[in-house]
From TrEMBL:
Organism in which the protein naturally occurs: Cohnella abietis
Name of the protein in question: MFS transporter
Family matches, as SUPFAM superfamilies: MFS general substrate transporter
Subcellular location: Cell membrane
Keywords: Membrane, Transmembrane, Transmembrane helix
MF GO annotations: transmembrane transporter activity
Domain of life the protein comes from: Bacteria
UniProt gene name: yqgE
Pfam families: MFS_1
Length: 388
């Protein structure tokens, strides 16, 4: 429960400001490529932070690193406040700081999540985490959009960024209530390479599946919110978009988290993968607020069928025996490196595509091809899902 509270505060702070961060940078640059470089740097430094911080999480105090991740996130928005309208000129610095913040927090969070859950309740925890995320996604962006639209100039953005700063500090406070579980042994810096080089390595298909998941996340995470703003010209409308889609996601995460059994993960993930790919097709009839809303509602409705089995199955594999559980930090680092490898590849595809052409048809095909990567995740995970 405490872990859900810490997670809730962290994602609330990010939902308040992160939803509009891309729009804030877009308004000063009107350049998707620049946003792509900012996101690429975030993913690169997130991956490096996962690998390096793994040593501190295993051999040091993971709670200090968790708090450091929340603190650096607060510092990120403090930096945005300090830079103001010139923030876009320092996109490289912002990308580096955000990457370090996310790397520190999510590595430690996932290690604690593994320790606090087991195969019997992992789907339920992920369902509740999704429910909280959906509630936050309904309320926080709408409140931010309302404030930004009602206040003159950049005042609304500054207030929203300051609120996020305060919520991060609250998250640090709650983290002191979490129980610290000790880890054993020394950090294995090269476990990822050795695990993948073994003949018939069981982790190879899992790494490919995770990379395919990350590929989709990076592109759709940056482009949808900005497209909604471009189509409507209103931060409040972007908040309304988040309110509607998160309301759908709330119901879907609750239902899937409550009723999806481990034995049904394979079919659930396949159906979810197909449906979140199909909802991209309306973009070929023109990108408008209506087609974006169809996409948003469709993804909110079907994404839990994909993400809950994917997340739970990977952590079940990490905990399948005593040896891998002892090396949980290294395996979680491997998971995050695979996700970020996919995110980096996805963002490179995004940047290169826009350098070649920004024609709507080209962008739509890029979205459809990269957006179908969850099918690749299912293909490489299907045997592990059967053994759940």
């Amino acid at each position: 429960m405490l872990l859900l509270v810490v997670n809730g505060l962290f994602i609330t702070a990010n939902a308040l400001s992160g939803t509009f961060l891309g729009v804030y940078l877009w308004k000063e640059s009107s350049d998707f490529v620049l946003l792509g470089w900012f996101t690429l740097l975030t993913h690169v430094f997130m991956a490096l932070t996962f690998w390096i911080a793994g040593n501190g999480v295993k051999e040091g105090n993971k709670m200090i690193i968790l708090r450091a991740g929340i603190g650096v996130s607060a510092a990120f928005y403090g930096l945005v406040l300090l830079l103001g309208k010139s923030a876009i000129q320092y996109f490289w610095l912002l990308g580096v700081v955000q990457g370090i913040a996310f790397g520190l927090f999510w590595l430690t969070f996932n290690v604690i999540y593994f320790e606090a859950t087991n195969a019997a309740n992992r789907d339920r925890f992920n369902g509740w985490a999704g429910v909280i995320g959906s509630i936050v996604g309904m309320i926080a962006p709408w409140c931010s959009g309302f404030l930004i639209s009602r206040m003159a100039g950049e005042s609304g953005y500054r207030v929203v960024f300051m609120i996020s700063f305060g919520l991060f500090l609250a998250g640090i406070g709650v983290s002191f209530l979490l129980h610290k579980r000790t880890t054993e042994g020394s950090y294995d810096w090269l476990l990822t390479l050795r695990a993948l080089r073994k003949p018939h390595a069981s982790w190879r298909p899992i790494v490919v599946a995770l990379a395919a998941q990350g590929l989709r996340e990076s592109i759709f995470g940056i482009i949808i919110g900005v497209l909604v703003y471009i189509q409507t010209g209103s931060e409040l409308q972007l908040g309304n978009f988040a309110l509607i889609t998160s309301a759908v996601g709330f119901v879907s995460f609750y239902v899937v988290g409550k009723w999806l059994k481990p034995a049904w993960r394979g079919w659930g993930m396949l159906i979810g993968s197909i449906l979140i790919t199909i909802v991209i097709v309306p973009f070929f009839f023109g990108i408008s607020y209506t087609t974006l809303l169809i996409f948003g509602i469709g993804v909110a409705l079907f994404l839990p069928l994909y993400t809950i089995p994917m997340t739970s199955a990977v952590f079940d594999i990490i905990g399948k025996n005593e040896e891998s559980a002892r090396q949980r930090v290294e395996y979680i680092v491997m998971r995050e490196l695979a996700l970020n490898a996919g995110r980096i590849v996805g963002m490179v595809i995004f940047i290169v595509t826009l350098y070649i052409s920004s024609a709507p048809t080209v962008i739509n095909w890029m979205l459809l091809i990269t957006g179908s990567s969850p099918l690749l995740s299912w293909l490489f995970m299907r045997n592990n899902l059967k053994n759940a």
